[in-house]
Amino acid sequence: MRPVPQLIALLKQHTPLTDIVGQNIYADNPPQDDDRPIVVLSVLNSIAHGTINGCNVRAYTSRLTVETVTDSRSQSETIVELLEDVLDGYSNTTDPTHPIESVVVDGGIDWAILNPVDGSDQRGYLCSQDFNINYRRI
């Protein structure tokens, strides 16, 4: 299984996180009508390192952005801490097609306030955290 679906499955099994976001954890484009909070994982770019020892195994490093959209900054901070607890240092070398060697926090946390466009006063909070995924393709 490719790395992002592996990580989504991992996050959906982490009860402290799902107690807050439920199953609202997505790759790339979440449904438009989902309630907050949501978590979105997106690979921004990848570096192919070529084959390993001349065999058919390829190595990659991908930059993963994990974004949360919530109703409060406090809720975002809690979710980001849980995401770091689960993802930072994770590895799954047993996957038969895309074993993950490591996931590592890479960079700071970015914040943005989402102003409503519907005339309401319901602001949202967008928080982004970057990770590097080091994995192989077999």
Folded structure, characterized:
This protein has helices at 3-12, 15-21, 73-87, and strands at residues 25-27, 38-51, 58-70, 100-114, 124-137. The chain is α+β, with helices and mostly antiparallel strands and 138 residues long. The protein has a single domain (3-137), classed as STM4215-like. It has a five-stranded mixed β-sheet with strand order 1-2-3-5-4. β2 (38-51) and β3 (58-70) form a beta hairpin. α2 packs antiparallel against α3. The longest helix is centred in the middle third of the chain and has 15 residues, at 73-87. The protein starts with a helix and ends with a strand. The mean pLDDT is 91.
Please write out the topology.
Layout: H1 3-12, H2 15-21, E1 25-27, E2 38-51, E3 58-70, H3 73-87, E4 100-114, E5 124-137
Parallel strand pairs: 1-2
Antiparallel strand pairs: 2-3, 3-5, 4-5
Helix pairs in contact: 2-3
Q: In a few lines, what is going on in this structure?
A:
With 138 residues, the chain is α+β, with helices and mostly antiparallel strands. Helices cover 23% and strands 43% of the residues.
Feature tags:
five-stranded mixed beta sheet; 3 helices; 138 residues; 43% strand; alpha+beta; STM4215-like
Distance between the termini: 11 Å
Mean pLDDT: 91
| Secondary-structure-derived class | alpha+beta
CATH architecture: 2-Layer Sandwich
Give the low-pLDDT segments. none
Number of helices: 3
Rg value: 16 Å
Largest sheet descriptor: 5 strands, mixed
